[in-house]
Amino acid sequence: SIFFRLMAEPHFPMSEDIHLLSHKPPVCGLKLLGILAAVGTTVAFGLATISQAFRAESAQQLHAQFVVDQSSQVAVPRALQRPPFNSKQSDVVSSSKASHTVQRGLQLSTLVASGTALPAHDWEITGNFTQASYTAWGLMLFAIAAGFVVWSGFQASKKPKPASAMAMCAVVSDRSASPELAASSAGVQQQAGLRARQLHVEQVPQSTNVAAEYLGVSLPEYVSSHTYAVAVIGAGPAGISVAWNLAKKGVSVVVIDPALEKDWPNNYGVWTDEWEQLGFPEETLGKIWSSTVVQYAENDRTQLPRGYARVDRLTTKTHLMTEAVKAGVHFCKDGVSSIEEGIGNNNSMVCLSGDIKVAVKVPVVAAGHYSKLVKYHSPGAKVINNKGEYMTENWKELVDEKKGSNPWGWKYAQGGAPGYQIAYGIEAETDGPHGYPVDEMVLMDWSGEHLEGDIDEAECNKVPTFLYVMPTDETHIFLEETSLVGRPSVTIGECERRLEVRLKHRGIKIKKIHEVERCVIPMGGPLPILGERTVAYGASNNLVHPATGYMVNRAIGNAESLAAAIQASLDNGLSLNDVSQKAWNAVWPQEALRIRDFQVFGMEVLLNMNLDQSRAFFKSFFSDPEAKEWRQYLAMDLSSRECLEFALGLFVNCSPAVKLRFMYDGVTRDGVTVVRSLLGL
Ligand SMILES: Cc1cc2nc3c(=O)[nH]c(=O)nc-3n(C[C@H](O)[C@H](O)[C@H](O)COP(=O)(O)OP(=O)(O)OC[C@H]3O[C@@H](n4cnc5c(N)ncnc54)[C@H](O)[C@@H]3O)c2cc1C
User: Fold this and answer.
1) Do the beta carbons of residue 501 and residue 310 sit within 8 Å?
2) Residue in 469, 491, 493, 466 with CA at minimum distance from that of residue 481
3) What is the mean pLDDT of the segment spanning 455-471?
4) Residue of the CA atom closest to atom 12 of ligand 1
5) Which of 10, 93, 620, 639 supports an S-S bond with 100, CB 3.0-4.6 Å?
6) Could you give the CA distance from residue 90 to residue 409 in angstroms, rounded to a whole number?
7) What is the per-residue pLDDT for 93?
8) Beta partners for 359?
9) Gene3D superfamilies attached here (predicted)?
10) Alpha-carbon distances of 550 from 245, 307, 610, rounded to whole Å
11) Judging by beta carbons within 10 Å of its beta carbon (0-12, 13-18, 19+), is residue 623 exposed, middle or buried?
């Protein structure tokens, strides 16, 4: 058991302690002992097994089963007439016509003499204790032992083998390009007690991954022997932004992602005024619309005097990557399988494929929603499905993300389950002009004139979807049928069907589809457990707006404050636990948590609205197109007091049906708690 743990976990604490005492790298100490013990035991078992096979002279110890075909006349092979196969015990003799049992003491030769024929090709011996099987077992054990020896030799050959721990420490000091590590290693050399963890870093094999290129940007390869201050896991918009901001502040950082050189898969829409605040080059926006429209019926709409844009994913990622490289970020093209969190003030180990581990002070996970690398709050009580049965608390498995469906039929989880935005979108070329004005973008088209004939009108009214439209030119357009939020109440397939019906009604014919977007965005739901050593950011930290599904602008924009908190805490020499705590606080200060509760309540209200209520709600939401409050609400940029004022204004303005909805959800969906939290009570 010790042997296997040592092989599997080079940082198994016992080896570390012994290593500290002996001043020897673990491979020379207990590990070697483990290997010898395992090989010795296996060889001994092999020898014992084979010798037992040869000692088994007596046929009584052995079984043999013969399949006999009475129709063919072939002599019994000579070998079968000798012990142990010359059976004296009860053997089963079977043929296609009959099955006989040969009584104890009956010689096989008698069987042949009696006219029972054994065709050479048609007999088999299946006993567990035959000489042949004993020998096979023995040889197999020998092979396993040989395998151990070859494998451990191979593993050892991949690792540096300094004569002593002192020499090892010198290697760390010489090779390390990290001033921090070099300094600490030099100091350690003066001491009799060596720091095992630094030696472990050196023992980690160099990565076999090749540094990726992204559109001509050469990404500097990480150095596995460095102790990075921060490892950012995930190179989505959130991850690269944090890494870039950290590196700008002089923090050593590595970004780890298996898809470094690939484009981001999602299509991002943003408000132009917010994007401009990021200071990114103009080319990062692919197409800009000067105004935005919310449509309630064919002739009923609100025009918002606010520009909207589609992010050019390629240019934006290239921009962020280029800036990150310039600032000194290192990259590793690999997936992270787990994180061994450091205890006390020890570093954490980020585990890559092939047993490679990277030592870091602060791991920051930006690996998308509900990452397995982050610990999330469970609701306390399990989710209850339609039949009242209990089910798993694994948030990632609540929906089928390929279909956007809810296979469990669950509705509500105590403590707050996520809602899901589901959509089916196409980037398409139309056969003739599509008819949408090319200078305005349709944020939401709730019109329902197409809801007749081919479609279940009642269902569409009960579980509404809207159309999101980004016309590029007269014949090129991005169209997305969207369920704003549900659990999930509409599948991606249903969105696709509704889009077809809508386009047919409008007389839009699709000539060619260039790209399809199948969208599942978790919104709201449980937050990570704040204060854990592993920090989360972006969708992994549930930064997605609970009532709209937007995040990209906010994640890029707020990355600076997270980076500043980490840098300041490291510079001030805080313990690593405290550094992580400060990082969490930077993302979720108390006020932000209160605002989020308010937004989550908004989501709960929205996911119960039918088509008419949705129209009425958004009519009052956008009733003053010039107002700053709805902009701030969408940006999660309201204070507690402003949230309450906004909610009150909305309530007063909206239709009686929506008022009822608010009141009902206020009682059943913790609305009172939210108000108390906003009031600071
Ligand atoms: C289809 C869709 C459309 C959206 N549209 C918009 C929009 O229009 N506007 C908006 O503001 N928001 C939008 N969002 C919401 C949000 O902005 C996006 O989800 C955004 O991509 C989240 O960014 P992120 O960097 O946190 O994570 P992601 O973009 O999901 O990136 C995660 C990265 O982590 C990597 N990764 C995952 N696991 C590991 C691992 N174990 N080890 C190493 N790397 C790993 C992945 O390869 C990936 O590169 C959309 C979301 C979706 C799903």
Assistant:
1) no
2) 466
3) 91
4) 550
5) 93
6) 59
7) 40
8) 227, 349
9) FAD/NAD(P)-binding domain
10) 22, 16, 22
11) middle
- 266 C-alpha to ligand 1 centroid (Å): 7
The Cα 332–Cα 225 span in angstroms is 13
pLDDT at 49: 65
Q: Is the CB of 552 under 6 A from ligand 1?
A: yes
Nearest CA to 554 out of 246, 271, 262 is that of 271
Q: For 616-643, how does the pLDDT look when each residue is reduced to its tens digit (9 = 90+)?
A: 999 999 999 999 999 999 998 889 889 8
CA-CA-CA-CA dihedral for 238, 239, 245, 247, to nearest 10: -170
HEC string for 11-41: CCHHHHHHHHHHCCCHHHCHHHHHHHHHHHH
pLDDT per residue as tens digits for the range 406-416: 877 776 666 67
Separation of 270 CA from ligand 1 center, angstroms?
15
Mean pLDDT of all residues in 518-525: 93
Encode 380-428 in three state secondary structure: CCCCECCCCCECCCCHHHCCECCCCECCCCCCECCCCCEEEEEEEEEEE
Burial 143-180 (b: 16+ CB within 10 A, else e): eebeebeeebeebeeeebebeebeebbeebbebbebee
Span 65-78, pLDDT tens digits? 333 333 333 334 33
Ligand 1: residue whose CA is nearest its atom 19:
539
Would the CB of 443 count as within 6 Å of ligand 1?
no
Q: What is the mean pLDDT of the chain?
A: 77
The answer, yes or no, to whether the previous bond of 84 is cis (omega within 30 of 0) is: yes
- Euclidean distance between CA atoms 527 and 277, whole angstroms: 27
The confidence score (pLDDT) of residue 414 equals 60
Query: Is the CB of 233 inside a 6 Å radius of any atom of ligand 1?
Result: yes
Mutate to test the pocket of ligand 1, among 551, 554, 556, 636 (most ligand atoms within 8 A of CB): 551
Question: Which ligand 1 atom is nearest residue 256's CA?
Answer: 43
* d(CA 528, ligand 1 centre) in Å: 17
> Tokens 């921090």 belong to which residue?
180
Higher pLDDT, 64 or 266: 266
Q: Under DSSP, is residue 628 helix (H, G, I), strand (E, B) or coil?
A: coil
> What is the fold of 213-376+527-587?
FAD/NAD(P)-binding domain (3.50.50)
At 411 the pLDDT is: 67
Where do the domains of the chain lie? Answer: 59-128, 213-376+527-587, 395-414+418-524, 590-678
Beta-bridge partner residues of 420: 486, 522
Which long-range contacts (C-beta less than 8 Å, at least 24 apart) are formed by 583-590? Answer: 583/362, 583/364, 583/535, 584/530, 584/531, 584/532, 584/535, 585/530, 586/561, 586/562, 587/535, 587/537, 587/541, 587/543, 587/558, 587/561, 587/562, 588/527, 588/530, 588/541
Long-range contacts of 246-252 (CB under 8 A, 24+ apart): 246/329, 246/563, 246/566, 246/567, 247/324, 247/327, 247/328, 247/329, 248/327, 248/563, 249/563, 249/564, 249/567, 250/567, 251/563, 251/566, 251/567, 251/570, 252/178, 252/180, 252/226, 252/228, 252/328, 252/330
What average pLDDT does range 592-602 have in this prediction?
91
Nearest CA to ligand 1 atom 31: 236
What is the rounded CA–CA span in Å between residue 339 and residue 242? Answer: 19
